Amino acid sequence: MIGLLLVTHSSYGESLIQCACHVLNNRPPQLMQLGVALQDDPLDLLPLAQTLLQMVDHGEGALVLTDLYGATPSNIAMKLLQPGRVEGLSGVNLPMLLRALTYRERGMDTLLTRATAGGRDGIVNMLKR
């Protein structure tokens, strides 16, 4: 199973995980988060992010999800990436996380495709649906 690590602003990642646990009615394994606060030094957080990544990766790789591309959490996440082994997606939302949790046993390529589609397709104009 591919591990999942969320690196987000403040408590956003933990909130997403709590919502996913509510929807799934359990806490999925190999799922952790790192919240980045305004006062945090990114260089100080990098070793912690690496440790968390090791904790979720049990040999099949990991997907790092971050909230806003180009922001501090995303910049930390970029330092963790290893093509084919540790991949990253930005713009994480609940539909993306749920897809990632659902498809992480089907290989990295499928996981990336399905998680990206979940995040994008989760945005719906409800009056025009």
SS class: alpha/beta
Question: What is the subunit arrangement here?
Answer: single chain
Secondary-structure element series: EHEHEHEHH
> Uncertain regions: pLDDT < 50 for 5+ in a row?
none
**Count of alpha/pi helices:** 5
Q: Strand arrangement, largest sheet?
A: 2-1-3-4
Rg, nearest Å? 14 Å
Helix content: 40-55%
**How would a crystallographer describe the biggest sheet?**
4 strands, parallel
Shape: globular
Tell me the fraction of residues in β-strands, as a range. Answer: 15-25%
Mean pLDDT over all positions: 97
- Amino- and carboxy-terminal Cα gap: 34 Å
Q: What is the number of E strands? A: 4
Explained architecture:
With 129 residues, the protein is an alpha/beta fold. 46% of the residues lie in helices and 18% in strands. The longest helix is centred in the middle third of the chain and has 15 residues, at 42-56.
Q: What is the topology?
A:
Elements: E1 3-9, H1 12-24, E2 31-36, H2 42-56, E3 62-66, H3 72-78, E4 86-90, H4 94-103, H5 108-121
Parallel strand pairs: 1-2, 1-3, 3-4
Helix pairs in contact: 2-3, 4-5
